[in-house]
Specification:
The strands form 2 sheets. The chain has a 10-stranded mixed β-sheet with strand order 2-1-3-12-11-4-5-10-8-9, with helices on both faces. A two-stranded antiparallel ribbon has the order 6-7. About 50% of the residues are buried. The protein is globular and about 55 Å long. Helix 1 (about 15-30) packs across helix 9, helix 7 (about 225-230) runs parallel beside helix 8 (about 245-255) and helix 9 (about 295-310) runs antiparallel to helix 10. Helix content is about 40%, strand content about 15%. The chain is of the alpha/beta class and about 350 residues long. It has 11 helices and 12 strands. The chain binds 3-isopropylmalic acid and manganese (II) ion. Manganese (II) ion binds near residues 248 and 252.
């Protein structure tokens, strides 16, 4: 039975990194086990059609086993209120498919140098789980804009939303080997419970959930303080759970500590759907020049295989995911083909060919 994968190339570098990843996934799994179907969406499609997420694309996503996305967004393509059209593709998919857990691995891999001195691969290895459907994003498009004098957006957290993302985080910690520093399974709740009632509620509900996981330590950190800890003691972390906007911000900081958004994968997961994409943007300034790094999307493709393997008890797919990750790290560690974002000049196509060779 082939898994139905919907692909949305999107804008900017999206098509090149997505197509590179599809080639690698086909090599890893064999072309008979993943059935890729390409659909439209994003800012470029909006300019052509007036729709950022066409109905047929959304329906295909609903019916899919997984979604692989390149990137979306073009500068200057904005709605009347000034918000970006391209980003709306992600947000509509998140809200309509209820992708409540945005999983962002922060892992220093071989061949990548951390800007934090003295850290080696394996010593920084944690996951940020960003609540992905409420928080400060819940009121997107529903805020108030008054006479060019006032604007508001509302921070929304619900018991259901907090419980499910926190439970997901504790389960994730149980599936890992603990923080590099001490091997302890730990979930750090990132909030501003000292200041805002919503975050105090986030912390209280998370603490209730933690009671069901006596084998996993619960830890708390305010969103400002955690930015210091992520620099000073990154090996302390195993899993960090945060409200939507805080998660958006600290996940970019985390990515920077392990080589940048060019190596930052993401898995946006709900009960029944998964969207996989590099955490970077569409980088339109380098689009179509074959200089974009496909690493973040390839590693997101590996996350997709892992997620499918777990949902369908498919051990072969688990092995395929490891082969993709190992091949990417092998090419990076060899040091001959280094993408531009890592200080080299490797082209997207030649990096992809090297990964394909490493897999064979
Ligand atoms: C991210 C991005 C998105 C966000 C944009 C593209 C909607 O920054 O996925 O981190 O703000 O969540
Ligand atoms: Mn972001």
């Amino acid at each position: 039975m082939a898994y139905k994968i919907v692909t949305i190339d999107g804008d900017g570098i999206g098509p090149e990194v997505n197509q590179a990843t599809i080639r690698v996934l086909r090599e890893a799994c064999g072309s008979d086990r993943l059935e890729f179907s390409a659909f439209d969406g994003g800012a470029g499609h909006y300019l052509r059609s007036g729709e950022v997420l066409p109905a047929d694309t959304l329906q295909a996503c609903r019916d899919s086993d997984a979604i692989l996305h390149g990137a979306a967004g073009l500068p200057g393509v904005v709605y009347p209120d000034g918000t970006e059209v391209g980003n709306d593709l992600h947000l509509r998919l998140r809200f309509k498919l209820d992708l409540f857990a945005n999983v962002r691995p922060i892992r220093l891999i071989k061949g990548v140098t951390s800007p934090l001195t003295g850290w080696q691969p394996g010593q920084i290895d944690y996951v940020i789980v960003r609540e992905n459907t409420e928080g400060l994003y819940a009121s997107r498009g529903g805020g108030v804009r008054l006479r060019d004098e006032l604007a508001t957006d509302t921070l929304v957290v619900t018991r259901r939303g907090i419980e499910r993302v926190t439970r997901f985080s504790f389960e994730l910690s149980r599936s890992r080997r603990g923080a590099p520093r001490d091997g302890k399974r730990r979930v750090t709740v990132c909030d501003k419970a000292n200041i805002l009632n919503t975050y105090a509620f986030f912390r209280a509900v998370s603490t209730e959930v933690a009671a069901g996981y006596p084998d996993v330590e619960i830890d708390y950190a305010y969103a400002d303080a955690i930015t210091v800890h992520m620099i000073k003691k990154p090996d302390f972390y195993d899993v960090i759970v945060a409200e939507n906007m805080f998660g958006d911000i600290i996940s970019d900081l985390g990515a920077a500590t392990v080589g940048g958004l060019g190596v930052a994968s993401s898995a946006e997961l709900g009960e029944n759907h998964g969207l996989f994409q590099g955490a970077h943007g569409s980088a339109p300034d380098i689009a179509g020049q074959d200089v974009a790094s496909p690493i973040a999307t390839m590693l997101s493709g590996a996350l997709m295989l892992r997620w499918l393997a777990e949902r369908h008890q498919d051990k072969r797919l688990l092995a395929d995911a490891t082969r993709v990750e190992t091949a990417v790290e092998t090419v990076l560690a060899q040091g001959q083909l280094v993408p531009a974002d890592q200080g080299g000049s490797a082209r997207c196509s030649e990096f992809t060919e090297a990964v394909l060779r490493a897999m064979r």
